[in-house]
């Protein structure tokens, strides 16, 4: 936008030198707006709906503002941030968020890789198997979380305890391993996505090279380690980054399965901030936490994005 | 030499190959193993569907009941529990936001692909950056703003939010489809004297309409399943299906069969859409990075 406004100022000089060029410049400017035009509605819409709230979040984070105490609102500078950083629960929740994202991404990538490798061969009913495997990803997350909570992990008549009863296991998963339970459910939901992505990677592999290597007597394992895995690397990286981006916002599973409990042992940042804002009515502090979360995410995401952009642009030119 | 290449290359002429594979004992084992894994992975969904057809007394047994007389009782209960409003709300928010996404997104993707403007990269990056940020940081001001203008518990609020939620993905995804339109085709059209609008309508749109359909399906899936905005911005009037589901939790999960029936009804439309679009799903979710 800024360049579009700056452009007319830069124009007059060539215009006085050469009339023909100025004519062409004029057209290209009009043409520029014509080209930019279709982009503007979407751009303006996104700026209004997504950026204005962030500005307000910044503003609210400097306010002492609790909805339960009307009229108590005042400017407190960075006090909310000090409160956030000295809040032990906040750090616990931040750690939970990291464990949840990393754990879910790692497990679902590994499982997704195994499924993708199994599906990358022709066999009876491959289409049906693939359809079965992607279904968990499609089930409404709230329904999936409720399904895990009530049907699978229930201590009284859950399927998991029933299946493990021959081994003498009887556990109340949600209260004893709340974060692990949420991660297990998320892995179940996210494995199909990783599988589809890695499968796309496998199917884009040039097969003449692996044929040649096989003729040269390479073992399947060496083939996998030295040809398949390097080729899949960028797909796995992309899957990990995208999975992490979606999982930062995980709310349904925590809300439905454990409500962050017991205590805050399974709360992640979205849930904790939600709790502060909508149950504790502490707008100022919740906003400060939101800002801290955003800054943390920007740092991690820009590093991660650099990784995938490098990986993609680099490899595409090579191929 | 090329059995495996052939298997990949086409799925119609693989019968012969399949037979040779089937006679290979290791291949048979691997196939059986894959099937067992897939069925295990799918089992929770199957269990949900089975439970939806049970009586409550069959649903909460220990050990679980596998043999039972199916009943539609639970679905009837769910309809009596007032599924009508949330169902209509979900349909409305999903369909209208998807139409809005396409109306805003198709021109934007067009501007960012075939006739790139200055700062294309910046614009693209801006779109995607909005997907990188945690929504929680925006929910508080959104709640305050929406409350001030009297739009809480109004389905249009969700329509706007869902449009903003899906637009970046849609722009990235459709841009990658636009980029696949061969430039020779466009040049040929312009040499033939076709105006821009004509070539868009007659050449480009027919070519990318499968891509637009896939994008729309992805928007449908996300809008239909969305919970965070819905639970915070709606109460009774604008309640959507995922929020409606949480209502069944009140009896400490006592009505398991009923909850399952409601879950099946909530999940079914998206599961069907997803099955149809499974090939395009990855591309949509990877923001068009994978061709």
Automatic annotation (TrEMBL), chain A:
GO cellular-component term (any): plasma membrane
Keywords (A to Z) from UniProt: Cell membrane, Membrane, Transmembrane, Transmembrane helix, Transport
Region named Disordered: 1-23
Membrane topology reported for the UniProt record: Multi-pass membrane protein
InterPro entries: MetI-like (IPR000515), MetI-like_sf (IPR035906)
Biased composition annotated in UniProt, kind: Basic and acidic residues: 14-23
GO biological process terms, semicolon-separated: transmembrane transport
Residue intervals passing through the bilayer: 39-60, 98-119, 131-148, 179-202, 235-257, 277-305
CDD domains associated with the record: TM_PBP2
Residues covered by the ABC transmembrane type-1 domain: 94-304
Location in or out of the cell: Cell membrane
One Pfam family linked to the record: BPD_transp_1
Membership in a protein family: Belongs to the binding-protein-dependent transport system permease family.
Protein name: Trehalose transport system permease protein SugA
Provenance organism: Gordonia insulae
UniProtKB/TrEMBL annotation, chain B:
Organism: Gordonia insulae
Gene Ontology CC terms: plasma membrane
Record has Acetylation as a keyword: no
Protein name: Inner membrane ABC transporter permease protein YcjP
Subcellular location, record wording: Cell membrane
PROSITE patterns named in the record: ABC_TM1 (PS50928)
Stored Pfam families: BPD_transp_1
Regions crossing the membrane: 28-50, 91-112, 124-149, 155-174, 203-224, 255-277
Any single GO BP term: transmembrane transport
Start and end residues of each ABC transmembrane type-1 domain: 87-277
Membrane topology field: Multi-pass membrane protein
Coiled-coil residue windows: none
Family assignment from sequence similarity: Belongs to the binding-protein-dependent transport system permease family.
Keyword entries, A-Z: Cell membrane, Membrane, Transmembrane, Transmembrane helix, Transport
């Amino acid at each position: 936008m800024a360049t579009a406004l700056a452009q007319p100022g830069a124009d007059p000089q060539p215009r006085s030198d050469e009339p023909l060029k100025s004519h062409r410049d004029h057209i290209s400017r009009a043409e520029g707006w014509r080209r930019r035009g279709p982009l503007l509605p979407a751009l303006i819409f996104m700026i209004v709906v997504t950026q204005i709230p962030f500005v307000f979040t910044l503003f609210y984070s400097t306010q002492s503002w609790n909805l339960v105490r009307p009229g108590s609102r005042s400017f407190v500078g960075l006090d909310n941030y000090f409160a956030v950083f000295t809040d032990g629960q906040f750090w616990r929740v931040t750690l939970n968020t990291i464990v949840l994202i990393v754990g879910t991404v790692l497990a679902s990538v590994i499982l997704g890789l195994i499924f993708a490798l199994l599906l990358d061969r022709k066999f009876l009913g491959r289409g049906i198997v693939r359809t079965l495997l992607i279904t968990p990803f499609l089930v409404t997350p709230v329904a999936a979380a409720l399904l895990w909570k009530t049907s699978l992990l229930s201590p009284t008549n859950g399927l998991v305890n029933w299946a493990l009863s021959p081994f003498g296991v009887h556990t109340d998963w949600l209260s004893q391993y709340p974060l692990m339970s949420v991660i297990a459910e998320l892995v179940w939901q996210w494995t199909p996505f990783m599988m589809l992505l890695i499968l796309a990677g496998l199917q884009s592999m040039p097969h003449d090279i692996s044929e040649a290597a096989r003729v040269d007597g390479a073992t399947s394992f060496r083939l996998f380690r030295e040809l398949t895995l390097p080729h899949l690397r960028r797909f796995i990286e992309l899957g990990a980054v995208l999975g992490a981006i979606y999982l930062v916002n995980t709310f349904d599973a925590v809300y439905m399965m454990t409500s962050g409990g017991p205590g805050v042992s399974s709360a992640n940042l979205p849930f904790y901030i939600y709790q502060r804002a909508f149950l504790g009515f502490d707008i100022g502090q919740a906003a400060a936490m939101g800002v801290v979360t955003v800054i943390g995410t920007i740092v991690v995401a820009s590093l991660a994005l650099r990784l995938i952009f490098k990986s993609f642009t680099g490899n595409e030119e090579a191929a | 030499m090329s059995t495996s290449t052939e298997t990949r290359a086409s799925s119609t002429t693989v019968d012969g190959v399949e037979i040779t594979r089937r006679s290979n004992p290791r291949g048979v084992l691997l196939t059986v193993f894959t099937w067992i894994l897939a069925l295990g992975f799918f089992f929770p969904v199957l269990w949900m569907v089975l439970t939806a057809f049970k009586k409550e007394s069959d649903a909460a047994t220990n050990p679980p009941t596998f043999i039972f007389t199916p009943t539609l009782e639970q679905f009837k209960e769910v309809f009596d529990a007032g599924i009508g409003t949330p169902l209509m709300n979900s349909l409305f928010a999903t369909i209208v936001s998807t139409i809005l996404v396409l109306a805003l997104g198709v021109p934007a993707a067009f501007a960012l692909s075939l006739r790139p403007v200055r700062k294309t990269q910046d614009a693209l990056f801006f779109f995607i950056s909005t997907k990188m940020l945690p929504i929680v940081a925006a929910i508080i001001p959104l709640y305050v703003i929406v409350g001030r203008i009297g739009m809480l518990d109004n389905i249009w609020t969700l329509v706007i939010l869902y449009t903003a939620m899906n637009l970046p993905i849609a722009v990235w995804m459709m841009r990658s489809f636009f980029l696949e339109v061969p430039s020779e085709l466009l040049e040929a059209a312009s040499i033939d004297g076709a105006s821009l609008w004509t070539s868009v309508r007659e050449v480009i749109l027919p070519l990318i309409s499968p891509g637009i359909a896939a994008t729309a399906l992805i928007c449908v899936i996300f809008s239909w399943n969305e919970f965070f905005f819905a639970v915070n911005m709606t109460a009774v009037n604008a309640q959507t299906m995922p929020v409606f589901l949480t209502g069944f939790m009140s009896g400490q999960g006592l009505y398991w069969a009923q909850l399952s029936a409601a879950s099946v009804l909530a999940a079914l439309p998206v599961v069907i859409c997803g099955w149809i679009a499974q090939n395009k799903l990855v591309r949509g979710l990877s923001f068009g990075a994978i061709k």
